[in-house]
């Protein structure tokens, strides 16, 4: 029945994903069909050097022809070179862009360019296996070479050391190939893609690892330390591997039952004793748009993790969870800051309320302050990454002792709380219950 002390974050970011059929030719160019994932600042993807990364499903076929028993496997691939680009239309052909705004059609004006058709024909490989025969009235299954440009498949095959016909399917994301860097005159900023939310995923995971690095690190631990990194937060978390799925509750249930040897109520007691730090990036005060923040709740760079508050439960923070998390940091001299959205602006959300409602555990929403959220290139403060790591490390190492000192559900002693007077209900006439029921 002891609690789980958890940091939860998400690993996905808004990006461009390849469609199931990517093959497209326009005006002599090989184009790639894509779709947008999440709520990205898509105009920032134009005129960028773009590569590919993701998962490829492969059939192992040592012979010339795959057999029915050929094993399947997945492989991860990262093509970290500029093979794709979405070029902007020159201002000479859209003179009003600076007055009317940039308003591309995301279906017709947002396909990355892969190659010219003429160059792609040079040295194009042929399929290595014959097309499967089809019975009368049954169409032959569509091959990958029918759905994707052969030069794209050739590139994937070369990267993975397989034949083109061994590729069964893939899930590929378009990504910026420019590496992350430290910048600013005093080298105080981080410029990088996908800070939301790999920054919090990294600090949460590193803090967990380092909190358990010595042989006696868990000698007096009163709970179970854990980190949970989810997919699909940017599209609502409703998936098998998202925060709305069952994996976190299932994991807690199995561990609690195993450690309690099946004792009745152990899982429920564990959940009630648990504490979740929902760690997702926060909105820093933008110097060019200061009116977008409540002036008294505007997070700044390098001032510590941001505690996120929302009375309408878009964030799961309350006074108890916020006080405990603040105190964990205060005991080690670690600062933090507060954020609440303006009353006249909508509020985003995180995995915090989703997990708080499904698990029934205490939750606080926190994050590193950043700018350019959901751009292809985001930024945050260097110091904040170290502060976040130290605060989460302190949470893992110190929280169980601090938590034991606070009981918000117990009544105070009788000599403090006094006696509750039972005031008569003068508007009620006669007995409430018939003393002589028939």
Give a verbal description of the structure.
This protein is an alpha/beta fold and 438 residues long. 25% of the residues lie in helices and 25% in strands. A six-stranded mixed sheet has the order 10-1-11-15-13-14, sandwiched between helices. A six-stranded antiparallel sheet has the order 5-4-7-2-3-6. A five-stranded mixed sheet has the order 8-9-17-16-12. Helix 8 links the parallel strand 13 and strand 14 (336-340). Helix 6 crosses helix 7 (266-273) and helix 8 (319-330) packs across helix 10 (382-403). Residues 127-134 have low confidence and may be disordered.
Overall spatial form: globular
Q: Helix share of residues?
A: 10-25%
SSE series:
EEEEEHEHHHEEEHEHHEEEHEHEEEHH
Largest beta-sheet details: 6 strands, mixed
Q: What fraction strand? A: 15-25%
On the 0 to 100 scale, the average pLDDT is 90
Tell me the number of helical segments per DSSP (H or I, 4 or more residues long): 11
**Strands, count:** 17
Instruction: Please give the alpha-carbon distance between the first and last residues.
Output: 50 Å
> Structural class of the helices, strands and pairings?
alpha/beta
Spatial sequence of strands, sheet with the most strands: 10-1-11-15-13-14
Q: Which ranges are low-confidence, i.e. pLDDT below 50, for 5 or more consecutive residues?
A: 127-134
Nearest-angstrom radius of gyration? 28 Å
Catalytic activity: Release of an N-terminal aspartate or glutamate from a peptide, with a preference for aspartate
Keywords: Aminopeptidase, Hydrolase, Metal-binding, Metalloprotease, Protease, Zinc
Pfam family, one: Peptidase_M18
Family: Belongs to the peptidase M18 family.
């Amino acid at each position: 029945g002891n609690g789980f002390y958890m940091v939860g974050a998400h690993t996905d970011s808004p990006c461009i994903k390849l469609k199931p059929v990517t093959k497209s030719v326009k005006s002599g160019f090989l184009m790639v069909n894509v779709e947008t994932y999440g709520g990205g600042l898509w105009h920032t993807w134009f005129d960028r050097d773009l590569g590919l990364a993701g998962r490829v499903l492969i059939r192992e076929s040592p012979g010339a022809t795959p057999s029915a028993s050929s094993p399947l496997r997945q492989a991860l691939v990262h093509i970290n070179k500029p093979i794709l680009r979405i070029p902007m239309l020159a201002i000479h052909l859209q003179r009003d862009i600076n007055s009317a705004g940039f308003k591309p059609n995301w279906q017709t004006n947002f396909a990355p360019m892969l190659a010219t058709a003429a160059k792609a024909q040079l040295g194009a490989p042929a399929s290595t296996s014959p097309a499967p025969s089809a019975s009368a009235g049954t169409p032959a299954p569509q091959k990958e070479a029918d759905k994707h440009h052969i030069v794209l498949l050739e590139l994937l095959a070369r990267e993975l050391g397989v034949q083109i016909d061994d590729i069964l399917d893939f899930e590929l994301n378009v990504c910026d190939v420019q590496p992350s860097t430290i910048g600013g005159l005093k080298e105080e900023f981080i410029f990088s893609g996908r800070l939301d939310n790999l920054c919090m995923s990294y600090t949460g995971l590193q803090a967990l690892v380092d909190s358990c690095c010595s042989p006696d690190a868990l000698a007096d631990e009163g709970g179970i330390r854990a980190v949970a990194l989810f997919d699909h937060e940017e599209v609502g978390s409703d998936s098998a591997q998202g925060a709305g799925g069952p994996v976190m509750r299932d994991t807690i249930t199995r561990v609690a039952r195993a450690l309690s040897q099946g004792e009745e109520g152990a899982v429920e007691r564990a959940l009630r004793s648990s504490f979740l730090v929902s760690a997702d990036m926060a909105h820093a005060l933008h110097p060019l748009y200061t009116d977008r923040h409540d002036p008294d709740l505007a997070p700044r760079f390098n001032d510590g993790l941001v505690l996120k508050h929302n009375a309408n439960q878009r964030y799961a923070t309350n006074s108890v969870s916020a006080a405990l998390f603040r105190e964990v940091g205060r005991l080690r001299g670690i600062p933090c800051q507060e954020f609440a959205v303006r009353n006249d602006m909508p509020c985003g959300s995180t995995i915090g309320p989703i997990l708080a409602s499904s698990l029934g555990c205490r939750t606080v929403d926190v994050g590193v302050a950043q700018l350019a959220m959901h751009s292809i290139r985001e930024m945050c403060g260097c110091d904040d990454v170290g502060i976040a790591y130290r605060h989460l490390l302190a949470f893992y190492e110190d929280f169980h002792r601090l938590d034991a000192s606070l009981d918000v559900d117990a009544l105070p002693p009788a000599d403090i709380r006094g006696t509750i007077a039972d005031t008569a209900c003068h508007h009620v006439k006669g007995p409430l219950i018939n003393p002589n029921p028939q």
